[in-house]
Amino acid sequence: MLNSTTPNSSASNTPAHQQVTINKKEHHTQYIYGEKLTVTPLGAGNEVGRSAVLLQFKGKSVLFDCGIHPAFSGMASLPFFDEIDPSEVDLVLVTHFHLDHCGALPYFTEHTNFQGRVFMTHPTKAIYKLLLSDFVKVSDVHVDDQLFTEQNLLDSLKKIELIDYHQEMEHNGIKFWCYNAGHVLGAAMFMVEIAGVRVLYTGDFSRQPDRHLLGAETPTLSPDVLIVESTYGITVFEGQLDRERRFTQMVTEVVRRGGRCLIPVFALGRAQELLLILDEYWETHQELQHIPIYYASSLAKKCMTIFQTYINMMNDKIRKQFDIHNPFVFKHISNLKSVEDFQDNGPCVIMASPGMLQSGLSKELFELWCQDAKNGVIIPGYAVDGTLAKRIMSEPETVTLSNGNTVPLRMSVKTISFSAHSDKAQTEEFISTVKPPHIILVHGDAANCHRLKQALQTKFTESRVYAPKNCTSVQIMFQGEKRAKVLGQLAMKKYEDNDEINGILLHHNFQHLLLNEKDLRLYSDVCCSGVKQTLLVPLNDNVPYESLIRKLFQNVTVEYRSKNGEVKTEQGSESMDTTDDTSVQTSASSRTKKAPIEFSDEESTIITIDGVVRIELKLKEKTPCALIEWPSSSANDCIVDGICNLILYSDRSLHEDILEEGKDELKMLYCIQQMIKEHFGECVCRLSEDKEIEVIDPSQRVLLKISSMGEITLCEDERMRGFLEIVMRRVFMSMFPLPTMMGCLDDCDHTLHIH
């Protein structure tokens, strides 16, 4: 059983602890909960491009990726940000540097009311700056439709924070960390945990290692929800060696017939993989070495510098080569900054960006060569619907150039997949390993999403599979048991089943901590406050207050202070010159037999009850008084109520009788009588011959009778009887000693045990 008070607080990291399960049967307050987790694609829902997936749970919001659509330009390329309130987004987690995953980030951070934090890996941030800067320069849109400026990009960079693989971070109650995703340098899969529910977002990932990158990792923890790409649907890729052999055959077919081979790629990512393949192939085929290979990108040199910087994030083969020579310093490949620098006088191979022929060098070269049958273009990656690369994959008879002219398409068009996405086999293997109960498919066109959904539903019957469209939410109910960590002083004890634990239940970031109130400052920033009360009560110098108090209460400590500051106790007459409190505790039986020690220069007597209630009796003052100080609590207030009644309604002659042995019943009757008068005002109370208190009306009619044990022996009004029973319980709480072994005076336990 668990008793607690629940403030909200922020708590620090906690040491080893005990786990205590809150029993719903005994405590019906929200300890078993049901909450909706919502996943909404703002982009990449039944499409490839403008990846932006919003996760919402327990009042927290996380946006996975923030990209643009390569088939559109300007505002039309953005995710559907108007469907959300950006100010409510706590985190943006960017998986990698491709524009369809990060291209809208400067717009989101600088042109909306987003106030959260942004995280990505080190290589992603470095390349993000280069690619977005180039994107601003080459964007072919009107200035009014421009998404962001160079300054917006620089401002967004200041807001980006870095994260390493496996580094656990926390923000506003959201825990998150990332794993290597393969795909491109620095690509990450993000695991997010909110209130114990884990969601894994893969972004673009590949389980298959290639020439320079490792395959995607397997998470050490299984997610409750897996958000996974479906780019290639149910396609199964060919083996790496077969794919590389087919690629080099495509290239050599074009150059051996005297043509120009165009390979449109993104500036970073698959380009480096293809460059490694071609450089190695040219090295082993001397008959091709007279044919130049160009890497045509304005970012080529800067990009290669970044790859060399993060060589430690690549596979063992590349790292070993780097110990001998830099594998990204190519022997047979040259950089080409622009078409003007190119001498088009024979067969060659040019790798140019961007990868979908939207604009830039790759589009210029395509339009220059597309009418010559000797030439060829090889599409090595995924092409989004609506792009020029996607259109020519169907080998149309004509194409429309940038100037509006329509010309025949005579050059050969070949496709091969080097995009480092997951195929059906990789996705199924990954799901078999992590075993998520819920699977959400994104980043795939409608046909591929539908096919993969059907395949996964057939294979993984225990999991639910979703394929939402843009702005369509998937809602999943999660229920679980809440647990409280018992820390500090409470954790020092060992508990058995059904033991009672009393403390303060601290709620912070979906965690519950059960603490002694004295430990609050150690585990939170909660300030623990108390109310200290002081009361000055006049005394009758003829009443032995000390003896009365010692008779009524247990755990009484007595000090005698002289005018010069000396402290003496009743156990000896030797004075002690000290400013420390010196006390003596006696048993209840001994207190009634020992008379207090008196000193000629005694200034005051200080009585402390259970170390909590302090009573200073100043009997030598001109006006004798008692200064009572105590920390306010229900138990302490009851003690002080009893003391005040004892002082205010004391009578020397009566108390002298009370202090005699055998007069306890008379004392109780007297106290009950005085308290009834105090509670009900001016009423007539008298002691009957049979030692009962009688309350009478002006006509001398007896209204009720109360025995010395507080039992109501006569009361005609039933409503009055119920009210009197409550009053009598309070009277007895004030009158009788409160033993400390029951814990009634413990500051952390305000439960009163009445005997």
What name is given to the CATH topology of the largest domain?
Metallo-beta-lactamase, Chain A
CATH class of the largest domain: Alpha Beta
Measured on Cα atoms, how large is the radius of gyration? 42 Å
Helix and strand composition category:
alpha/beta
Number of domains: 4
Domain Metallo-beta-lactamase: 49-259
Pfam families: Beta-Casp, CPSF73-100_C, Lactamase_B, RMMBL
Subcellular location: Nucleus
Biased composition (Polar residues): 572-590
Descriptive tags:
alpha/beta; 4 domains; elongated; 37 strands; Metallo-beta-lactamase, Chain A; Rossmann fold; 755 residues; 7-stranded mixed β-sheet; disordered N terminus; 25% strand; disordered C terminus; 19 helices
Could you provide a short overview of the structure?
The protein has 755 residues and is an alpha/beta fold. It is built from 19 helices and 37 strands.
What do these coordinates show?
With 755 residues, the chain is of the alpha/beta class. It is 27% helix and 25% strand. It has 19 helices and 37 strands. It has 4 domains: 2-30 and 482-523, no CATH class; 32-236 and 421-478, Ribonuclease Z/Hydroxyacylglutathione hydrolase-like (Metallo-beta-lactamase, Chain A), CATH 3.60.15; 240-415, Rossmann fold (3-Layer(aba) Sandwich); 532-742, no CATH class. The strands form 7 sheets. The protein has a 7-stranded mixed sheet with strand order 8-7-6-5-4-3-24. Its main location: nucleus. Residues 49-259 form the Metallo-beta-lactamase domain.
